[in-house]
Specification:
mainly beta, 121 residues, 12 strands, four-stranded antiparallel beta sheet, single chain
Length: 121
């Protein structure tokens, strides 16, 4: 049983910054790919950024050059640094682990509960 807990969301003015954290727990040995997704009201859930266990990253076009995803494998934590925020970034942000190896087996497609990010104009 793997749990992901997001933190760091909140209300920020346009042009400001936030750093989101996603901490994984549950006797974890390794996580292959972790990502951040977001879902605005009335919209589908979309990929924001992904990072592999080796540190390779990719981003949605809408956040390139503004957001940076990173991870600390020793802490089983992934981060999303968000700069130059726009009102269009307002959404619930979710973290996801694609494949987690634990001491008792594997878990696939684990999602956190989400954290609200609101950007005012």
């Amino acid at each position: 049983q793997v749990q992901l807990v997001e933190s760091g969301g909140g209300l920020v003015q346009a042009g400001g910054s936030l750093r989101l954290s996603c901490a994984a727990s549950g006797n974890i040995l390794s996580i292959n790919v972790a990502g951040w997704y977001r879902q605005a009201p009335g919209k589908q859930r979309d990929l924001v950024a992904r990072i592999t266990s080796s540190g390779y990253t990719n981003y949605a076009d809408s956040v390139k050059a503004r957001f940076t995803i990173s991870r600390d494998n020793a802490k089983n934590t992934v981060y999303l640094q968000m700069n130059s925020l726009k009102p269009e970034d307002t959404a619930v942000y979710y973290c996801k682990a694609d494949k987690v190896r634990t001491t008792w087996g594997y878990e696939y497609n684990t999602w956190g509960q989400g954290t609200q990010v609101t950007v005012s104009s």
